[in-house]
Write a structure and sequence with these properties.
Blueprint: H1 2-36, E1 43-58, E2 63-75, E3 78-83, E4 89-90, E5 99-105, E6 108-114, H2 118-152
Antiparallel strand pairs: 1-2, 1-5, 2-3, 2-4, 5-6
């Protein structure tokens, strides 16, 4: 019975770890797909910060708030919005009304990059990929450990 309880606890933890890994790897894919299309973004326009999204963060000691901008731009009379969630920063860094150049794909105006955030986007992509891959490997290792606990008992883990 103890092996089953231990395996269940490990399975719950592995599930949480796997979920976080999947979210990070999805973020990596999203940013990577966008960065791959950079050469197609031959048209540009000016965009403005229309909204600041506040994000609450905390750890065991502190609580703080950061913000990221939402940039709106117009193409052929239609408004598009780009959530720059990878460029989170302390409050006060971004202001509503700030202007940024937005490069976009002429045939798909919703596919865009803001050049001022390009470096931050690349580092966010790299971090998401590395941490996501490490957590995915840890999840696989935990699942293997669960099999060992169920088949051989806890002695196989020591």
């Amino acid at each position: 019975m103890d092996r089953l309880v231990m395996a269940l606890v490990m399975l719950v933890f592995a599930g949480l770890l796997g979920f976080v890994a999947a979210m990070l790897l999805l973020q990596f894919k999203k940013l990577n797909d966008l960065l791959k299309r950079e050469k197609e973004m031959t048209a540009n326009t000016m965009g403005h910060v229309v909204e600041l999204v506040t994000v609450r963060r905390r750890n065991s000691t502190f609580r703080w708030r950061t913000q990221y901008p939402v940039i709106a731009y117009r193409v052929n009379g239609e408004e598009y919005r780009f959530h720059v969630d990878f460029a989170e920063h302390w409050r006060g860094k971004y202001q509503v009304g700030d202007e940024y150049q937005v490069d976009y794909v002429p045939t798909e105006p919703q596919v865009c990059l803001v050049k001022d955030f390009y470096k931050k986007m690349k580092s966010s992509r790299t971090g998401s990929g590395i941490v996501g891959a490490i957590l995915a490997l840890m999840t696989i290792n935990m699942l293997w450990g669960i099999l060992n606990v169920l088949i051989f008992g806890t002695a196989a883990l020591l």
